[in-house]
Amino acid sequence: MVREILILGGGSAGLMTALALLRRAPGIRVRLLRSPALGIIGVGEGSTADLPVFLHSFLGIPPAEFFRAVNPSLKLGIRFNWGRGEPYFYTFAEAMRQVIGPREVPCGFACGGDLGGNHPATALMEQGKVFLRHPDGPWPDVRAHFGYHVENRELVAWLESTALAWGCEIIDGDLAEAPVADGRVASLRLTDGRELRADLYVDASGFAAELIGRALGEPFVGFADSLLCDRAVVGGWERSDEVLQAYTASDVMTAGWCWQIEHPGRINRGYVYSSRFQSDADAEAEFRAANPKVGPTRIVPFRTGRRARQWVGNVFAVGNAAGFVEPLEATALMCISHAARFLALSLRDSDGAPPPSLVGATNRLLARQWDEIRDFLAAHYRFQSRLDTPFWRHCREHVALRGAEPIAAYYRENGPTFLAEIDLIPPAKSFNLLEGYWTHFLGMGVPHARPDRANPEEVAAWRAHVAANRGDAAARGWSLRDTLAILHDPRWSWTPGFFGPD
Ligand SMILES: Cc1cc2nc3c(=O)[nH]c(=O)nc-3n(C[C@H](O)[C@H](O)[C@H](O)COP(=O)(O)OP(=O)(O)OC[C@H]3O[C@@H](n4cnc5c(N)ncnc54)[C@H](O)[C@@H]3O)c2cc1C
To answer: I need a surface site. Which of 178, 327, 368, 427 has the fewest CB within 10 A?
Structure first.
């Protein structure tokens, strides 16, 4: 019976799990051990639309409190500079599911690879805006399809103060070893001689994976044949007159790609690259040349992959200890929130005694999520069409698509239709994946066999729709900076249930 949980790690993974347990699995004592000397990784700033749902719906944290403490910025999607033409936007809204006319032709057939203005959210991002004007007054028409940009240290500081306020005991100390008996962790021995015990241990120790990896030896399933990058050079600068954008930008580089994350007072960038194709010094030089304002930089090495199982005996791994893929779709905080949710609800629903079938199902679901994301990211590498360098040529020839292979084959013959979605990506998918595939295949110019499926009337109707999206309403839309001022105003109130069911 699980009555006491000890979390190893005080980064976003450990703390988000603590909050999920405290809020949704009441009656369990939660303690958290973290090393002030080792600190946290300090990167991880973009999210999908799952993070606001986790925070405000699953945990019930009032958005006003979060805005006051963390000062997040809003993100409607990602602008990818990965195709031959103009950069294209991938939104959290359902842009590609729109259909045209009585034949209900999916809009992807009519746009001919030009995704510009395909949704109000896209048109707003293109014009440096975030929301349309509200029809009833001088405030933005705030829609729920957004994620957050948050500075990692501010997020972690707020998570920590909330965990303390909710009854989590936080212990400073360094793990020396975790003795194992019968495939279970027996205790955590600290370097100062203390020994801590619990019924269940959460391994949130980051890349160290102290419990799931070092102590229990759970195999690591590497993703290197699909995702070649293994390092990032990161840096940023204080914002001056740059427009605060409601999207993350992603630009291809010689041996990888570069993100741009927008905070109200700062712009952070990071170049993710493959050390097989570029040295640290050359990557840093290319990064600086592309971003002349960047201040001090640091190199962050990483290894992509996941543990074979995330829940083994009395250890549940979360965050970078459980698995890691590069932030090309900013999925890490989403994976953490899903894992934390599964653990809390599994303990609650099983009255603290999760049977093997529940543990097994949780392991399969979480592993599938990692693999789905790996395959989706692999497709970005395989079909990128903007740059032709040794790294990108290698990606085009060798990146293993795995689960994305049948999706790409289907697309080539059928084009961007959702008809067989349930077969291509069965339910319990991680996020709006097929929307993402079709957006990227069109944006990167992957050919398909049905370019003429939309007839001239349907193409004309689609163009009129795009023009309407891009028209006066978007042009007169709200800037992100003005919107954030409104959202911080004590007179602003969020509609109950705004973030939907958890
Ligand atoms: C280059 C890069 C860019 C990223 N960008 C994004 C992004 O845009 N969006 C996103 O969602 N995610 C991103 N991530 C992922 C991000 O790192 C994670 O989302 C997140 O910060 C989770 O970290 P963590 O809590 O697992 O680990 P950490 O922050 O590393 O925390 C580990 C904790 O364990 C403790 N610990 C470790 N060993 C011991 C020990 N022996 N004794 C005691 N305590 C110990 C540490 O003190 C620390 O408290 C990025 C990652 C990288 C590498």
So the answer is: 427
